[in-house]
Write a structure and sequence with these properties.
The protein is an alpha+beta fold. The protein has a single domain, classed as 2-Layer Sandwich (60s Ribosomal Protein L30, Chain: A). Helix content is about 35%, strand content about 20%. It contains 3 helices and 6 strands. A 6-stranded mixed β-sheet has the order 1-2-3-6-4-5, with helices on one face. Helix 3 links the parallel strand 4 and strand 5. Helix 2 packs parallel to helix 3. The protein is globular and about 40 Å long. It starts with a helix and ends with a strand.
Length: about 150
């Protein structure tokens, strides 16, 4: 047990020094919580900027009235990517700046259909790192949710 606790302590110290090194070298002095509509009833920001990193909240394919768009998973994916593109543009970025995405699916069987739409937003040689998984449900009954991380120019 003592060995196990010692290993945990060493890992925590190493992790903390790595984080401190990043904070010292990186530009993390500014954190901005970005929301397109301050009246939004949802308890999250569209994106959070930390230094030159932009962390986008998960987006689902909804219209301006916050209803999931009709047309199935392809239409929802297209709309979610349009919303992501709008957030990126508002912050001086584009899909070329995206380095990581997470795709959450209500049904993993939709993975090929999502990929067909998703891939059209990126250059073939610049696909971001990505994870995808199925869930037991998504907000508002959506079939897909996508979150992204981008490095700002």
């Amino acid at each position: 047990m003592k060995f196990f606790l010692s290993v945990i302590a060493v890992l925590l110290i190493c992790t903390r020094s790595d984080a401190q090194q990043y904070i010292t070298k990186g530009d993390t002095s500014t954190v901005s919580y970005l929301k397109a509509d301050s009246r939004s009833k949802f308890p999250f920001s569209d994106a959070v900027r930390v230094g030159n990193m932009l962390y986008l909240s998960g987006q689902i394919g909804v219209d301006s009235t916050m209803h999931v768009v009709a047309g199935g998973v392809e239409a929802e994916t297209r709309r979610a990517m349009e919303i992501i593109g709008n957030i990126l543009r508002r912050n001086g970025a584009s899909f070329d700046n995206v380095v990581k995405c997470t795709v959450m699916l209500a049904d993993i069987k939709d993975w090929p259909a999502v990929n067909a739409v998703y891939r059209t937003y990126f250059k073939e040689e610049r696909f971001p790192a990505r994870s995808a998984f199925a869930t037991t449900g998504l907000a508002l009954g959506a079939k897909i949710e996508i979150e992204c991380w981008a490095v700002l120019p």
